[in-house]
From TrEMBL:
Database matches in InterPro entries: IS402-like_dom (IPR025161), Transposase_6_like (IPR052909)
Domain Insertion element IS402-like: 11-81
Coiled coil: none
Descriptive protein name: Transposase
Amino acid sequence: MNQSNTRYFWLSAEQMRRMQSFFPKVRGRARSNDCKVLSGIIYVKRYGLRWQDAPAVYGPYKTLYNRFARWSRMGIFARIFQELARPDAQGC
């Protein structure tokens, strides 16, 4: 990731490391970078954008949408939020 793109990424390497266990394992073909895709999802949701209006730095908007829909269906975001809301969970 080059210096000009760092403003687009919302999560640190440490934060991504802590969340990695919540994401499904990679099977078969390598998938897009989880940090990049998750940052794109956060960006779209944070600013109330349409998926196709996401900055190109996050990759194809269809990848963002498909990953958001799949992970939502699988309950991944709910598990992450539950973990972060635990009283004994350490902050980011």
